[in-house]
Amino acid sequence: MFVRILVGLVAILFTACLALVLVIQLAGWDWLRGPVENRVSRALDRQVTISEPLSVRWRWNFVPRVRVDSVTIADVDWTGDAHFVVLDRAVADIAVLDLLRGRVNLREAWIRGLELRLSVDEEGRNNWGLGRGDGQGRIPIVGGLHLVDSQVIYRNAARDVSFTAHLDTVAAEDEAGADRTSISGEGEMRGRPLSFTGEGDGVMRLRDPDQSFAFRLDIEGGETRFAFDGRLGPGGSFREIAGSLMLRGENLRGIYEFTGIPVPDTPPYELTLDLARAGDVWQARNIEGVVGDSDLSGRLDYDTGRDRPYVEAELSSTTLDFSDIGMLIGAPAIDPDDMSESGLERAQARALRAEGRIFPAAPLDVERISGVDGRLVFEGREVTGAGQALTGVSTVISLDNRVLLFDPLEFGFRGGRLDARVEVDASGGETLTSADGRFSGLRLEDFIPNDRVAGAISGEVSLTGTGDSIRRAMASSDGRITVVLDEGSISRRTLELIGLDLLNYVFASDEAVATSCGAVDIEVEGGTGQAGTFLVATPDSQIHGEGAFDFRRERFDLQIQARDTNPNVGSLGGPVNISGTFRNPQIAPDDETYVRGAASVALGVLLSPLASVLGTVQVDTVDGGVCERLLGQADKQGGA
Fold first, then answer.
1. CB 55 within 8 A of CB 81
2. Cα angle: 539, vertex 511, 499; to 5 degrees
3. Staple 603 to which of 59, 92, 574, 611, CB 3.0 to 4.6 Å?
4. How is residue 476 annotated by DSSP?
5. Measured between alpha carbons, how far is 241 from 228 in angstroms, rounded to an integer?
6. How far is CA 389 from the centre of its chain?
7. In the structure, how many helices (H) and strands (E) does the chain have?
């Protein structure tokens, strides 16, 4: 674009200077400065000033060499710049005979000290629309154009981009070679600094309607690196660009800063791809590389021709690292002191540990999704770093006018799966998050690592909350969580401990006792879950529970109690409290248990050892039909 502008300006300028070249050769040239300024100013509809005398060296081959020094062209008012073009010196050899035929032929042109300012305001207006459409700026024939110490200053307020590009012609090393153009520069994009270096064909190649323009460009912006090696379309068309692109950095979010394509925070990455532009659509094919410790491959299209740009992508990972999944939501499963992990991952993990939290506070960046729509299909075929629990993940993500939808969101577990639908609606004043999921066959011991309790669990989750992070959404959530223990076991010693059966706990074996059933039903309102049903039954006992789950503070307030089918000597019988935080739960007997324990000691002292034993007799018995009735009620509610 700037080459066409530059060559057009040079053509108009030299055409005006040579209009009377034959007439005034003997009379001198400098008196033409005023007429030239006036004619070019009218042609460009901009004030043109030539501060130094004109110089023409006539040659009898009718190709004079013309030199113009210290030229300025005024800019439009809204840019705030005094000059659109500042030119130290321009020299050109002009074919006079072609000029007489109405064609401008610059056999060779040299430009030194050019400063061209290209501006776009927030409304999309640009400052390079020159002239009044009278044909005065027709692009001439140019045999060769050489740039020395020249620069293009580009500012685009609509896209928040500005840079200065330094241009120089690199002469060929031998006569058979072609000149090259070197480019370097620096600037800002979306508030992030960037710099670039590169090289391409000679600038006149940009005017050839039958030849593409090859170039290489390395861009560095903060911690993001791009390296592109490719071609522009014939005539220097940016609408037909094609080549290979390598990109790497500390966080894929840097890609958003450059392109506006919404991507989440990630660990360090390095990717390669084939990039092409066909009209308004940028096409990324053969994407290959790594993000964190996960491989990534696939394709992506970015359509800028719609009212709202649209991204459509299909990505997959053959081996997906579990900690990389956690970082996407601000909760990486890593040791925050592990220096092999990225700084952002360690900061996220360190914050969760310092706060004693499990729900991440990383907010949804609404700005990142505000101006783009799209659809992403993703599959992680194998998940590592999660023990044997999580085996695979897949989802379809759609983005429509600031509504982010994961549907379906599927996780594969050993022996089970979780199918969910998650919607994050940021289209209004406050972000609204809803999650609905069903799971089955999940192993309890995969989520609570232990050798005391095991079993397969199934259930449903339906929650809705407000807030721009998982932590805020859970703190305000309403809904229901239902979990059923399909088959399981609990160690004998754990049962005796829950029942505070101290005597049997001492002598009990650590055998696994099969559970008859289990059910937990939690109603959630305003970020607090009340356990309406909490039951685990074995052939010989029941474990009952009640209490609350505080999702706002991430704390427990539960009481559980075991009841044997037969009277039991040696059991304090009182409930056990489960309190503390979700990350660090604390288990202790209830105050009533302490009172009963103290009373039994007093009886032993005041009466007899027998009274002390009688004080611990548990006479409650199990209602064997409770579990069946509860499960039957859950089935009816699910069918409704």
1. no
2. 60
3. 611
4. T
5. 11
6. 27
7. 14, 34
Cβ neighbour number for residue 134 with a 10 Å cutoff:
9
Q: What is the DSSP letter of 323?
A: H
Burial 76-104, CB ≥16 within 10 A → b, else e: beebebebbbbbbbbbbbbbbebbeeeeb
- Which helix (H) or strand (E) covers residue 504, if one does? helix 502-507
User: How far apart are the C-alpha atoms of 129 and 298, rounded to whole Å?
Assistant: 41
Q: Can you tell me the distance from the alpha carbon of 44 to that of 118, in angstroms, rounded to the nearest whole number?
A: 15
CA distance 41 to 71: 12
d(CA 69, CA 112): 10
Measured CA to CA, the distance from residue 50 to residue 63 in angstroms comes to 23
8 A C-beta contact, residue 423 and residue 436:
no
CB 492 within 8 A of CB 508: yes
Q: 511 and 491 in contact (C-beta within 8 Å)?
A: yes
Range with the largest mean pLDDT of 315-319, 428-432, 590-594 = 315-319
Distance CA 17, CA 25 (A): 12
Q: Which residues pair with 518 in a beta bridge?
A: 485, 536
User: What pLDDT, in 10s, does the model give residues 142-168?
Assistant: 667 788 888 989 998 877 889 999 988
Non-local (6+) Cβ contacts of 501 within 8 A are 562, 564, 568, 570, 571, 572, 618
Number of neighbouring beta carbons within 10 Å of residue 3: 22
Secondary structure letter of residue 498 according to DSSP: H
pLDDT tier, 7 (very low <50, low <70, confident <90, very high otherwise): low
Report the SS3 class of residue 69: strand
10 Å CB burial of residue 305 (0-12, 13-18, 19+) is: exposed
